[in-house]
Amino acid sequence: MFKKISLILVSFLVLSLLIGPGLAQRKVEITFWNGFTGPDGRYMQNLVDEFNKTYAGRIEVKMSIMPWGDYYTKVVAAVAAGKPPDVGIMHLDQISAYVPRGVIIPLDDLAAELRLSEKDFVAAVWRAGVYEGKRYAIPLDVHPLVFYWNKKLFREAGLDPEKPPKNRAEFIEFAKKLTKDKDGDGKIDQWGTMIPVGWPNFMIWYSIFFGNGGTLFTPDNKKALFNSPEGVDALQFLVDLVKVHKVSPENVAVDADVDAFKRGTCAMEFNGIWMLTAYQEQPGLEFGAGRVPQLGTKTLANWAGSHNFVVFRQRTPDPAKLSAAKTFIGWVSRKSLEWAKAGQLPARLSVLRSSDFKKIPYIGKLGQEIPPYIVFPPLFPKYGEATGPIWDALNFALTFKKDPKKAMDDAVELANKILASE
Amino acid sequence: MKRKLFGDEGLLTPYLYLLPHAIFFSIFAFYPVFKGIWISLHKWDVLSGERTFVGFKNYLDLFFVRNVPAQYYWQALWNTLQFVFYSVPFLVGIALILALLVSSAKKGKGLFRTTFFLPTAMTVSVVAVIWRWIFNYESGLLNYILYSLFKIKNIPWLTQQPGAWISIVIATVWWTVGWNMVYFIIGLQNIPEELYESAKIDGAGWWQAFRYITLPSLKPIALFIFVTTIIASFNLFGQPQLMTEGGPGRSTVTVMLHIYNEGFGTNLRMGSASAMAYLTALIMIIITFLQVRFFTHSE
Amino acid sequence: MDYKFRKSILNIGLYLILTLLAIIWFFPIYWMFITSLKPEHETIAWPVKWIPFPPVWENYWKILRNPIDTPVFLWFRNSFIAAFSYSILGLIVSTLAAYAFSRMKFPGRDKYFWFLVSFMTIPGIIYLIPNYLTIDSFGWVDDLKAIIFPGLASVWGIFMLRQYFLTIPYELDEAAKIDGAGRLYILFKIIIPLSKPAFLTLGFMNFLSNWNDYLWALICLSSPEKRTLPVGMLTLQGRYIHFYGTMMAGAFLTALPALILFVFLQRYYIRGITLSGFGGK
After folding, report:
1. B101 in contact with C, Cβ within 8 Å
2. Which chains are adjacent to chain C, needing at least 3 Cβ pairs under 8 Å?
3. Domain segments of chain C: what residues?
4. Do B266 and A80 touch (CB under 8 A)?
5. Which chain A positions have a beta carbon within 8 Å of C41's beta carbon?
6. Which residues of B are less than 8 Å from C48 in CB distance?
7. Which of the residues A30, A44, A52, A66 would you substitute to probe the C interface, choosing the one with the greatest number of C C-beta atoms within 10 Å?
8. Which of C44, C139, C142 sits opposite A259 (nearest CB)?
9. CA-to-CA dists, residue C198 to B83, C195, C270, angstroms
10. At A2, phi and psi to the nearest 5?
11. pLDDT in tens, chain A (422 residues)
12. Is the CB of residue C224 less than 8 Å away from at least one CB of chain A?
């Protein structure tokens, strides 16, 4: 009796072992890499979990997160080694750098399948995904530079906490009122603003530069133009905030502005929309968030980046994985609103204008205020490398190593060399 | 009788014992020296699979064309030399002082030695993260202490020179000085006690004993320490990568960091990165050679 | 009397200086630990709290309960597998070679030995690229094999073990040989048991150097779940750059295993340096 049962059990086991792999084979596993290391990562994970539940037994997405800083290095290395992930995220300004090197593949068919059209997207974002007539990226979101201000400090300085500065003159005036020596030791302990010597000062400069009406490169992308009066003025303004108006301390380290804003020793700060959740979590911090004031002389302009879905080139393409990857991208793309809750603006206009989106605190408002003024750069393969020298120039000028004109001239010289190299 | 090839006294037996190491050695230590030269003579892109033979172009570019990567390389080499110059005196000097102090202690020697040696057990990424936090501009411990004690406000350690070098040197000394200290302690132990006793009889004081016995006896170990410390400082990578990210304004981009960015960053220009590596290796070998000459000639 | 008095003053001074230095040296580790025990808003609060009471463990939970962003346990496992395999394989490979160099006579022995030793002077900087390409051609990129095997080319272990084996009297071998013992028997029953301290030293040194390796692991490992702790730290730094408490909790978790091992085994380390003959000869 016992023997019989065990025999049945064993044969059952063997049978299931034989059939098991066959059954499991129908399930496609795809890998998805991104750099959502902030709170946004958790929202993406929730989306992935929901997707896996919906497609249980058919597709399983495995997500891996690493900081953007080494994400690109790692993705490129993985593609080069023939072991790339299936799906990834790329920033808008990086796409053109990786297409010619064969890192990602065209997705025209997917865009057509999803019936995506330019009309439903922030125009600049939509166009950035196209390289030499082919679409390589499906936009996910837009993440602009945001102007943050501390409402409590505004009130204390006799300013209306609901009215952020609108232009350059007002910004300087407000900043001066907000710069104080509170304990009377002859040293300033509350600053109007903080202009860091590194990240994200480029985004601030960029917004002013385009607000001045500047252009980064000649139309053929052969020569850099940012040492124009528009470019030097933008930098001069930032340096003057520190040197002349003395409303920002000297040598603000990267992220020092974040700590100071959290602590309430910096009244007005520029940082990405991605900082929102961190500020909302800070106990006792009462702040407003809006578009970047018109610090340029001509118009409003606002820096923004954008996350895009891409599919990586495999040494031996697997059609099952490819179609699973496309299914996944299409599915997430439709969940734009969920993603917006992670602290980004959806790239789709229909979502951006929906009443559900408008209801999200802060982000709903930013989504109406900022997109009209977003300026995306002209994209070409060397864009990232050729704008690198600007970062150095800002650093040199804000640490008083070079005057703004000289810093920008040097940057252009270097950028031209980069543009001229093969 | 003819000897057997295998077995205990076989002709080939010793080589069999050497074989496992020889396999790894030839793949990962011998072959790469030549493979690296071969790569440096190419335009080598692993991404597109491009391998174009370009002769000595990658080397000539460094000297004559001065394109952007070359310009950055020379700057990085200069930065690295600066770091060697700033760090080595402290890494050796402080190690000697610590070794002398620890060796003079009668009780608790092991405890003190362990304390100074402990940081070497950590990985560079942890060391960098700790010191980055201590040197933090807004909320760092150091600026806090400076302010509470001396009312000095917010020194931008990591974003301005010489602050960035000072921070990196401090972090490096804290992390690795234990090694040199241990070498010195062993060197001190190996000095025969009789030398000191006979010096005492001759009426030599503490300073004379140190000057004429301790220092000369430490000379061989000091040579070793100098050579290895300079090489280690030349290889500086993790501290600037993680603490200053090469800044302010590329001033802490070291040769290692530049080669990493050139060869393994998103550029993947492995040919020119290899050329830079060989040039740097040559410079390091020359410096080491000069040191050995200097130490052995000043007898 | 006067002399003794002066001496004791000197002694007190010595201990004062040593204690002060030791406190300074230990402080960064202490600071890392207490920062990790503070709730986030307290980490940037002035005045600084020197003793966080009551300690808060939320930073540790944040990391440990977050297996997607920061799979610390996975990294720990990877680090352990790599370091452990490397140190064991390293011992085997080095022992066999050192045994041949110290106990056998064969043509080319000394030439080959010095040839190997001469490779110790080649700057490591030139190895990064060719070795990466070799690893790539083996398909080992993003694989722990890349962290384990290249290090086996090291000559250091052979050098050290050979020095040690040479101190074991040759008469012991002879006696065993007369009793009919073979080479392997002598190695396993005489040489290895007598070299325990040297093995512990080499094994621990290899373990620690592999455990702490950063640059090579950074180059070879891409996916987050394949990383070792030192490279994983990079993910933590990116993830928690504005969250000092959590970052320090991650740093502490990363550093802790090596620190504990080190406190207990560091005397072997020091013995290893003495053994290898670098101790001032």
Report:
1. yes
2. A, B
3. 2-63, 68-275
4. no
5. 262, 282-283
6. 141, 144
7. A66
8. C44
9. 35, 5, 11
10. -60, -40
11. 555 666 665 665 555 555 544 444 578 999 999 988 777 888 898 899 999 999 998 999 998 888 887 788 888 888 888 889 999 999 988 888 888 888 899 999 888 888 888 888 888 788 878 888 899 999 999 999 999 999 999 999 999 999 999 999 999 999 999 999 888 877 888 999 999 988 899 999 999 999 999 999 999 999 999 999 999 999 999 999 999 999 999 888 888 899 899 989 999 999 999 888 889 888 889 999 999 999 999 999 999 999 999 999 988 889 999 999 999 999 998 888 888 888 889 888 888 888 999 999 999 999 999 988 998 887 888 898 899 899 999 999 998 989 999 999 999 999 999 898 86
12. yes
C-alpha to C-alpha distance for B275 and A39, rounded to whole angstroms:
42
Chain A positions touching C219 (Cβ under 8 A) are 77
Q: Are B149 and B202 in contact (CB under 8 A)?
A: no
SS3 call for B70: helix
Establish if B65 belongs to a structural domain.
yes
Q: What is the pTM of this model?
A: 0.86
B21 domain residue, yes or no: no
Coil, strand, or helix at residue A269?
A: strand
- Asked if A37's CB is within 8 angstroms of C239's CB, the reply is yes
Substitution target in C14, C16, C129 with the highest count of B β-carbons within 10 Å is C129
| A182 touches B: beta carbon within 8 Å | no
| Interchain pair C237, B242: CB under 8 A | yes
Residues from chain A contacting residue C69 (CB–CB below 8 Å): 37, 41, 65
Q: Is residue B62 part of a domain?
A: yes
Q: Looking at beta carbons, which residues of chain B come within 8 Å of A76?
A: 47, 266, 268
Strands A59-65 and A28-34: parallel
β-strand partners of A28: A59
β-sheet bridge partners, residue A91:
A307
Nearest partner of B269 among B101, B81, B121, B48, judged by Cα: B48
Structure tokens belonging to residue A332 = 């997430």
Q: How far is B154 from chain A (nearest CA, A)?
A: 9
- Which of these CATH numbers, 3.40.50.300, 1.20.140.10, 1.10.390.10, 1.10.3720.10, describes C68-275? 1.10.3720.10
Structural domains for chain A? 28-142+305-373 (3.40.190.10), 144-304+379-420 (3.40.190.10)
| Beta carbons of A251 and B158 less than 8 Å apart | no
For residues A266 and A180, the answer to whether their CB atoms sit within 8 Å is no
Best mutation target, A37, A43, A73, A285, to test chain C (most C CBs within 10 A) = A37
Identify whether B32 is part of a domain. Answer: no
> Cα–Cα distances in Å, from A173 out to A70, A234, C39?
40, 18, 37
Q: Which domain holds residue B119?
A: 57-297
Query: B26 CA to chain A: closest CA distance, Å?
Result: 23
Number of domains in chain B: 1
- Nearest Cα of chain C lies from the Cα of B29 at a distance, in angstroms, of 6
Strand stretches in A110-220, DSSP E: 130-131, 134-135, 138-150, 191-193
CA distance A121 to chain C (A): 30
- CATH number for the domain harbouring residue B80: 1.10.3720.10
- ipTM of the predicted structure? 0.89
Answer whether A74 touches C (CB < 8 Å).
yes
Q: Positive or negative CA dihedral for C213, A254, A41, C251?
A: positive
Query: Under 8 Å CB-to-CB from C60, ≥6 apart: which residues?
Result: C36, C249, C253
Q: What CA–CA distance (Å, rounded) separates B239 from B257?
A: 10
- Spatial distance between the Cα atoms of C123 and C116, rounded to a whole number of angstroms: 14
Asked if the C-beta of C253 comes within 8 angstroms of chain B's C-beta atoms, the answer is: no
